[in-house]
Amino acid sequence: MKTKRNTVKKTSKPLWAGRLAEKPEADAFAFQSSINVDKRLVFDDINGSKAHAVMLGKQKIIPKDSASKIVKELDSIAVDIKSGALKIDDSQEDIHSFLEAVLTKRLGEDGKMVHAGRSRNDQVATAFRLYLKRAVPQLQTELSMTANVLLDIAQSHITSIMPGYTHLQRAQPVTLGFHLTAWCAALERDFSRFKDALARLDDCPLGSGALAGSTLPLDRKAVAQSLGFSRVSLNAMDSVASRDFVLELSSVCAITMVHLSRFCEDVVLWASEEFKFIELAEGWSTGSSIMPQKKNPDFAELIRGKSARTAGNLTALFTLLKGLPYAYNKDLQEDKENLFDSIDTLSVCLKMFAGMMKSARFNVKRMKAGCSGGFLEATDTAEYLVRKGLPFRAAHEVSALIVRDCIEAGQKHIADRTIGELKKRSKLFEEDIYKLITPAACVRARDLPGGTAPKEVRRQIKILRKKLQTG
């Protein structure tokens, strides 16, 4: 008789079936199944089982011949799954049960030996960490590639002057290269956060059992070493109860997505008719179903929108964990779907953002024109007076009064005032003021560490490239 996708096949037998005479009905069994989520751990679980089996043989817990057969068959299972010869059975409880069922079916009694000295609790925790040890470096690579795309653009626009904004009001002259380097400084911190998170999750839970360890003479250090972990976990109960590594990685994904969202908000603004600082490629734009003239920055908006998913996933994980007693609970089965979604979302958004920015074109003339008006040179005017010996608060007031004078006279720049008019506000003004308050001069003068001066931005780019190196 054919079985439906979400029903339990007659051959399916849960690992815990011995204790309970009555088994869950099909719908109930499917409800507590996680295989559709955790099947991406299949090869990590195989590697964990191989390392465990080798150790069991060396420790004479099982015959060495049986351990060899288990390892060989696990390799065969991996090959069959990759080739499609073996399909993952979605009616099984989880990927771990599926693999053990296949192994037992192929090897008989030898296959039944693989689970000695371990619980699904430490088995799952190990496979999960192994997966993350693969997935997170890939995210770091994608993050580094995205940042380097931005740094390439920044390098070519080190002297492209544009308005800098605070409160979305024109504030001071900066350069496009400086602005994009600011984005990359945020991405580099995200890169570093992933590195820190990897270091903390790099302990091996295998051998912790359900929560208290094992009476069998397991060699936990050998297993950890063979799987590429830096160390064994310190406490067996913590090994199976802890999911702070999931919270940490989910948080880093959410933080990175918030950064991308903010960058995309800049892009959306810059692409508007009001700004016209950026021209997105047609392949990275969409049209309107009713307005023929529209060219919408939908990719930037979608990345901005998808940041909500990662924030929601983090909130869900915090809520999941906050009330759990400190050991393994079935609730923890819900830990993977949210983190997997955050990892997947960040990965695709990094690729989309890099592609969108790499193909974009910047209207440098429009950007430079944006520095005309708005009195972006007012701070430089105040600092000119400070260098002449005037206390800053007094210099700030003088500069503000000059701005007011300009507005009343219908003038757009402080340089529109004559030297005589400027001296009425402060006798410290000299003719050299006019050379120091052009947008280019304002940019060049900010050459302290962190500033927008071209030579300083070049230094920042060099440092960021070095920090963003992978491997």
Describe it for me?
With 471 residues, the protein is mostly helical. The protein has three domains: 26-116, Fumarase C, Chain B, domain 1; 121-368, Fumarase/aspartase (Central domain) (Fumarase C, Chain A, domain 2, Up-down Bundle), CATH 1.20.200.10; 378-467, Ribonucleotide Reductase Protein R1, domain 1. 59% of the residues lie in helices and 4% in strands. The chain has 19 helices and six strands. The strands form three sheets. It has a two-stranded antiparallel ribbon with strand order 1-2. A two-stranded parallel ribbon has the order 3-4. A two-stranded antiparallel ribbon has the order 5-6. Helix 8 (220-226) links the parallel strand 3 (203-204) and strand 4. The two termini are 53 Å apart. Residues 1-11 have low confidence and may be disordered.
Tally of structural domains: 3
- Low-confidence runs of at least 5 consecutive residues: 1-11
Assign the CATH class of the largest domain. Mainly Alpha
> Approximately how much beta-strand content do the residues carry?
under 5%
**Biggest sheet architecture:** 2 strands, antiparallel
Strand order of the largest sheet: 1-2
- Overall residue-averaged pLDDT value: 94
The percentage helix is: 55-70%
